[in-house]
Every structure is written in C-alpha cells, then in structure tokens.
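Format notes (please read before filing issues)

Several people have asked whether sequences and structure tokens are stored in separate files. They are not. Every record keeps both together, in the order shown below: the sequence lines, then the token lines. Line labels are part of the format and must not be stripped during preprocessing.
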Amino acid sequence: MRKIELADANNEPVTVDMGIEKPLTIEEAAEFLDMKKSTLYKMTHRREIPFSKPHGKKIYFSKVELVRWMLGKPVKTRSQIDDEASSYVTLNNV
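Then the structure lines:
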C-alpha cells in the first residue's frame, strides 16, 4: 500500500492511502478527475497537469500526482485570511 502525506487547507498533515499504484490511462484519469478527455488532453498539451509519456505516444497519469495536483492550491477560509491579516498588522505596527 502506498501512502502519501499531504497538507489540508489548514496546513494540517493528512495521510492518504493510495493503494498499489497502477498508471492511469487518459480515460481513467478523466473519470477520476470528473472531466472530459478533451479537457484533459488540452491540459497536458499546455503542461498544466502532471503526466508521463514513456514511449512518446500514449499518455499516463499517476493517481498520487493527480491528488497532489488537485490539493496543491487550497483556498483559504475567511478565518485564515483574517488571522493572517491580524498577524500582519500586529507584526508590522500598521
């Protein structure tokens, strides 16, 4: 079993059990991400999503990398933004 450590929106550690990883095809990755194959192809063309092309033709995806990519830019809560603003004001004597 493969486990990865990620951080949630509050930067708290989260362990995700990915099982035994088998590379995903474009069809499997599109289903996993709940998007159209054409959108996924466009994203690979623009290098917006991690993928592999081991033999120069067929595209494969790592589920672990896709999960990291999905969780890579968490949106902060209002509370987190307020806390950061308060800390900034306090530290910078604004």
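For reference, the curators noted about this record: Residues 23 and 85 are 42 Å apart (CA to CA). Residues 2-92 form one domain.
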